[in-house]
Amino acid sequence: MPGVRFEQVDLRYERRTVLESIDLDLVEHRVGIVGANGSGKSSLVRMINGLVRPTSGRVLVGGLDVARETRRVRQRVGFLFPDADHQIVMPTVREDLAFSLRGSGLPAAQVHERVEGALTAYGLAEHADHPCYLLSGGQKQLLALAAVLLTEPTLIVADEPTTLLDLRNVRAISARLAALEQQLILVTHHLELLDGFDRVVVIDEGRVVADDAPGPALERYVELLG
Ligand SMILES: Nc1ncnc2c1ncn2[C@@H]1O[C@H](COP(=O)(O)OP(=O)(O)OP(=O)(O)O)[C@@H](O)[C@H]1O
């Protein structure tokens, strides 16, 4: 696993402290991040690909300093947002998948082959030439995940990818995520998704308050919410 390391990370917006003294070395295959609304989870994971910069401290991905090697880090990190509409950029499903491989240097025949493979693997073949806006929420999130995976990231960061989905689609997306070979860092309020995870980090008011196996970590989180 490439591993993500937060070294003494603080994040402040003007006088407000959002994250404080974060020291984490995340090397496990599947890591969950939980915490109340506004506790700092999104800010934390957005530092992994440089979307948010720490006020002090460093973030390293596979040993690369995100601040210095943002481009290389972004080639390794696939990011899924809560709302797939924010990352679907092309008019049709097939075009959107092909867009992921722009600049990959692959010959057109290989781009075609990979896109067709992804359409089949993600159950999107019958929608290949449909406008993306006609997809259901679950299909859009599948498309976003398929597009991210085409870039062959070594790490997937998923920030509440099931928040907008119904239960059936929550299950469909979570099964896909759980089956990934890549390291997965998942922020979620759907605690059942963390069954079988290797590690769960609980954030409260910008600090790590528990960091453990899912059982004890989630017990602590529920206590905190209590
Ligand atoms: N660009 C910004 N400027 C000022 N404050 C910000 C900015 N981004 C985030 N914040 C604040 O930082 C805090 C943490 O936000 P963040 O989105 O990281 O929390 P979260 O744990 O992901 O919440 P949720 O579960 O609701 O998504 C919030 O109070 C938010 O208002």
Automatic annotation (TrEMBL):
GO cellular component: ATP-binding cassette (ABC) transporter complex
InterPro entries hit by this protein: AAA+_ATPase, ABC_transporter-like_ATP-bd, ABC_transporter-like_CS, ABC_transpr_CbiO/EcfA_su, ECF_ABC_transporter_ATP-bd, P-loop_NTPase
Keyword Chloroplast (UniProt): no
Keywords recorded for this protein, A-Z: ATP-binding, Nucleotide-binding, Transport
Pfam families: ABC_tran
Molecular function, one GO term: ATPase-coupled transmembrane transporter activity
Domain ABC transporter: residue ranges: 4-224
Organism superkingdom: Bacteria
Family named by the database record: Belongs to the ABC transporter superfamily.
Designated name of the protein: Biotin transport system ATP-binding protein
